[in-house]
Amino acid sequence: MMSSTGSFMTRLSDVARDVEACLETLLSNEAHSGEMARPARLISAMRHAALGGGKRLRPFLTIETARLFSRSGAGPLRTGSAIELLHCYSLVHDDLPSMDDDDLRRGRPTVHKAFDEATAILAGDALQTLAFEVLADPATDADGSVRADLVLGLARASGLGGMVGGQQLDLAAEGRYGVAELGENEIRLLQMMKTGALLTFSVQAGAILGRADQERRQALRIYGRALGAAFQVADDILDREASAESLGKRTGKDLEKGKATLVDHLGMEGAKRECRRLVSEAQEALGVFGPAAETLREAVRFVAEREV
């Protein structure tokens, strides 16, 4: 498997910088139009959660997919930033004592540790609602039907049948509601919902902005699902092989809680083979785009081969 090129890493870094600037604006201390005020402690907690960390992979996927259809500028950047706000909310809530009970995220104290548990819950709530506000704003796209498709897509990816539903399955997999012995298919479903749904939508959002036809949307849906699955397998491998210092968060959590992953079912070498298979599946789905999709091909290689 080829490693990601220097030009890809430069592009990833450039997009991350642009997203950081957009998030800075969205999370400024001053009240925006239509708001009464921004409570200082709450906005500080939101900024702690969303700024100064992460590779911004989800907005990168949105922006790069939109580029396939010659769409660039504020629309894809705002859409990607909205998805990142939603992702950051999920991390804040995942870290809570009632969920994963983590003290470290991206090498820094989690929000409930840096502030307090109640503020962390409210910060997550506010990040989530801000994400939908950004998508619904005409500044994101002049076409109301496009904005509606983006809002609908993010709601489905992040809610009952997606990320939140996946988190509920994840809690059950820890044995909280009785003994839970997950089979391989159950693990794949859990991961597809909890992690894969939002990654898949990140790709689909670019297609929505690009007014893609059904053939290309379907190709990108296959790509997004394979990338999301590869991301989670790679994450499971890293959880066993990497250090907490390199990842910036606690490792070995699933093993501690007795929760099975694909590494347990397939073995370490089997999991690595599965990751390579998913990379091939994702890349093959992009055939309809030809050389124009090379950045997205490198993105799935990056996801599978990342070390931190």
TrEMBL record:
Keywords: Isoprene biosynthesis, Magnesium, Metal-binding, Transferase
Gene3D superfamilies: Farnesyl Diphosphate Synthase (1.10.600.10)
Transferase as UniProt keyword: yes
UniProt xrefs under PROSITE patterns: POLYPRENYL_SYNTHASE_1, POLYPRENYL_SYNTHASE_2
SUPFAM superfamilies: Terpenoid synthases
Domain of life, per lineage: Bacteria
InterPro entries with a match to the protein in the record: Isoprenoid_synthase_dom_sf (IPR008949), Polyprenyl_synt (IPR000092), Polyprenyl_synt_CS (IPR033749), Prenyl_diphosphate_synthase (IPR053378)
Record bears the keyword Transferase: yes
UniProt xrefs under CDD domains: Trans_IPPS_HT
Cofactor requirements of the protein: Mg(2+)
PANTHER family with a match to the protein in the record: FARNESYL DIPHOSPHATE SYNTHASE
Protein family (similarity comment): Belongs to the FPP/GGPP synthase family.
Protein name: Polyprenyl synthetase family protein
